[in-house]
TrEMBL record:
GO terms classed as biological process: siderophore transmembrane transport
Compartment annotation: Cell outer membrane
Listed name of the protein: Outer membrane receptor for ferrienterochelin and colicins
Family note: Belongs to the TonB-dependent receptor family.
GO MF, any single term: siderophore uptake transmembrane transporter activity
Domain of life of the organism encoding this protein: Bacteria
NCBIfam families: PRK13524.1, PRK13528.1, TonB-siderophor
Domain TonB-dependent receptor plug: 60-177
Residues making up the signal peptide according to the UniProt record: 1-32
Entry keywords, A to Z: Cell outer membrane, Ion transport, Iron, Iron transport, Membrane, Receptor, Signal, TonB box, Transmembrane, Transmembrane beta strand, Transport
Coiled coil: none
Pfam families linked to this entry: Plug (PF07715), TonB_dep_Rec_b-barrel (PF00593)
Length: 739
């Protein structure tokens, strides 16, 4: 990989940022020295410290949602947190592309930008495990994503940040950010154990069960700890669940099962009243339960059928992390946070055949491969209160470093053709440095401006600027307006950009009119994907339980990285065809988000209240091909009728209405498709919670009351929008004991 030298332009940018940061750091002491009196200085400091940081202010935007610990307890997910996150405005679950392959492995998709543009954080630290799974020609990965590494019982809250405010987080946050915040150490010894069991009404759907614990408390003066663990298992669907659906020789696979094992420990040391050090280490394991999932359609091979019959694991990921976090208060200079994290993801998976030898099928005999992805993350932020130009400021100065290293011999699906060479190592790496500034400015009592700029430098793809401007204006005590605009980007992933990555496809892969295999190679000359994200919204709160919001968002997307053949024909070498991942044209994502919460009984609706949120997708398509970026509903409406009967009992009636989903009309080979869309449908649920005693609570409920079941018709683009299974009616029971 190329080294960074002082002569490179990035260092001139670095010096400019350093100068601005230094001026910001020096401004506060200088202003204090020029104060007319000590009393005036104290008054200035008091005014400044009430100004929130830019990050805290941006959380007040209409594009931000928070899931609390109580929300999780009252509506517990069976296993994956995405089951609950999907009920937030602007959130859907979708496959990594619109082709339908691996369609049941849906991941969090914010505002239709796709799962690859959703950044998952745990306590502010990025989760990158899905990057260790090979990205295939049409953009899919055989992965469940990154939302299932923290058990539900260990979560304090989840923040979902959408729109321009997400630009501060750099590559991969163009759609938005999901920050999963875990429970912290406590001043007294406390603990809890949670058991959960979910059983479906249908025998051909898998049940779920999990058992988790949390333990926290002091160890000595200024020393405390937090420990959580989790064991969970969701059974797979019956392999025949989709029989009779579609025209494939063998039915499309149902939902795979998953096994989870998690253990995490955190040690907190209060060095001084103003200095805190946290040491954290964790290990998690996820393994699948195979139900016949395959990349290319057709009948199962004998080996695949054998793995189906035994419900075997065909891939598993072992994730290990270690981190150090320091938080400090530096008086007039403000406060700081410094994070270092090491993340190691080891993925073991069955090798699959290449073109002409059972593409997408397990090789015979079975061969296991391993990929190892290592990530190093360093982030430091300084929050400096200032009084400049007669205005209160909170300046955030940040620096970040990310390093990604992968060793995946399986990324060479085939030896390259004659005339091409390769190192044969399957190794790749990339470093990213970033600097960013954000200033939270109280222009008036009613107007808050948050300008920001972030500079990322990737040693393979150069520098990218991400400027942003967000504003909040308080029209009155009840009405406020939010607006924002930002440039966001996503660097090519480590497979797309790696010249050691070789993939060959035939069968469903080669273009119409062309025989012979097609070879796809990683491209180190790719440009990052970029988007200009705009948002404007209005919010109303009468402080008596009524509140509503409405936001319009518009994203212009360009340089999307693809290897789909309709975007460009491969080079003809007579006996084979060759092409690389490349930057395609432009895309548009546009829609509305809204909410309306209505008190019905009790002060501010404390007894009975109706909560609603709505997402409408107006556009979500590649401008050049007219094809959808991902298959998501035209609209999604989530409603919850919350009845708190008394201090012991509460119930919820939930409803979600999904609008029509349009499929691709152009296949990956350039052929016209006649696949049908998926019509509107609704899901209802009923939940109840009982606080039996101070230290014992129970929850039970019925999901999908109407038993609305949807079936998957194929595992490829011929499925249209029917690329996933919607499970039917199910019953759950959960019990938590604490002390």
């Amino acid at each position: 990989m190329a080294a960074i030298h002082p002569s490179q332009p990035f260092h001139r940018h670095l010096l400019a940022f350093a100068a601005v940061s230094a001026l910001g750091g020096m401004a506060m002491p200088a202003l204090a020295q020029n104060a007319d009196s000590s009393e005036d200085s104290a008054q200035q400091l008091e005014e400044v410290t009430v100004t929130a940081t830019a990050e805290e202010q941006l959380r007040q935007a209409v594009g931000v949602s928070t899931i609390t610990q109580e929300d999780i307890e009252r509506r517990p997910p069976a296993n994956d947190l995405s089951e609950l996150i999907r009920t937030m405005p602007g959130v859907n679950l979708s496959g990594a592309s619109s082709t339908g392959a691996f369609g049941n492995q849906r991941q969090i998709d914010l505002r239709g930008m796709g799962p690859e543009n959703t950044l998952i954080l745990i306590d502010g630290k990025p989760v990158q495990s899905r990057n260790g799974s090979m990205m295939r020609r049409t953009g899919e990965r055989n992965t469940r994503g990154d939302s299932n590494w923290v058990p539900a019982s260990a979560v304090e809250r989840i923040e979902v940040l959408r729109g321009p405010a997400a630009a501060r987080y750099g590559s991969g946050a163009a759609g938005g950010v999901v920050n999963i915040i875990t429970k912290r150490p406590t001043d007294t010894l406390s603990g809890e154990v949670t058991a959960y069991y979910r059983t479906p009404q249908s025998d051909n759907e898998g049940d779920s069960r999990r058992l988790g614990f949390n333990l926290a408390g002091p160890l000595a003066d200024n020393l405390s700890f937090r420990l959580y663990g989790n064991v969970a298992k969701t059974e797979r669907d019956d392999p025949t669940i989709n029989e009779g659906q579609g025209t494939q020789a063998a039915p499309a696979a149902g939902r795979e099962g998953v096994r989870n094992r998690d253990l995490n420990a955190l040690l907190r040391w209060d060095l001084t009243p103003a200095q805190v050090l946290e040491l954290e280490a964790g290990i998690s394991r996820q393994g699948n339960l195979y139900t016949g999932e395959r990349f290319v359609g057709g009948s199962l091979t004998a080996i695949q059928q054998e793995m189906v019959d035994s419900a075997a694991e065909t891939n598993r990921t072992l994730r290990r992390t270690a981190s150090v976090t320091h938080r400090g208060n530096w008086g007039s200079l403000g406060s700081s946070r410094l994070i270092f994290q090491y993340e190691d993801n080891n993925r073991r998976y069955l090798n699959e055949g290449a073109a002409g030898s059972g593409e997408g099928n397990f090789t015979n005999p079975l061969t296991w491969r391993e990929s190892e992805l290592k990530n190093y993350f360093v982030n430091g932020e300084l929050y400096t209160p200032l009084r400049l130009g007669g205005l209160d400021h909170m300046l955030t100065t940040g620096v970040e470093f990310r390093q990604e290293k992968i060793n995946d011999p399986g990324s060479q699906n085939v030896n390259p053709p004659a005339g091409f060479t390769t190192g044969g190592t399957g190794k790749a790496e990339g470093d990213t440095w970033a600097l960013y500034l954000e200033d939270n400015i109280a222009v008036t009592d009613a107007l808050m401006l948050t300008p920001g700029v972030r500079l990322d430098h990737h040693d393979n793809f150069g520098s990218n600027w991400s400027p942003s401007l967000n504003a909040t204006y308080q029209l009155s005590n009840e009405w406020s307006v939010n607006a924002g605009a930002a440039r966001a980007f996503k660097a090519p992933n480590i497979y797309q950009s790696n010249p050691e990555y070789w993939y060959t496809t035939m069968g469903n892969g080669y273009p119409i009119g062309i025989s012979g295999p097609c070879y796809i190679q990683g491209n180190p000359d790719l440009k990052p994907e970029t988007s200009i994200n705009k948002e404007i919204g209005v919010a109303w709160n009468n402080h008596q339980g009524w509140d509503a919001s409405l936001a319009f968002f518009d994203n212009d997307y360009k340089n999307k990285i693809v290897a789909d053949m309709p975007n460009g024909m491969p080079v003809d070498y007579n006996t084979f065809r060759y092409f690389q991942w490349f930057n395609a044209g432009k895309a548009k994502v546009r829609g509305l988000e809204g909410s309306l919460n209505v008190p019905i009984l009790g002060p501010s609706g404390n007894t009975l209240k109706l909560f609603n949120n709505l997402t409408v997708m107006d556009q979500n398509k590649n401008k050049d091909t007219g094809q959808p970026l991902s298959i998501i509903p035209k609209f999604t409406l989530n409603s919850t009728l919350d009845w708190r009967i008394n201090e012991q009992f509460s119930t919820q009636l939930t409803a979600t209405l999904y609008g029509k989903q349009d499929p691709r009309t152009l296949g990956s080979r350039g052929q016209d498709l006649t696949a049908e869309g998926r019509g509107s449908y609704a899901l209802f649920g009923l939940r109840a919670n009982w606080n039996i005693t101070k230290n014992l609570r129970a929850g039970f409920g019925v999901e999908n009351l109407g038993d609305k079941r949807l079936y998957r018709t194929a595992n490829a683009e011929g499925a249209g929008a029917a690329t996933y299974n919607e499970p039917g009616r199910a019953y759950y029971l959960t019990l938590t004991g604490s002390f």
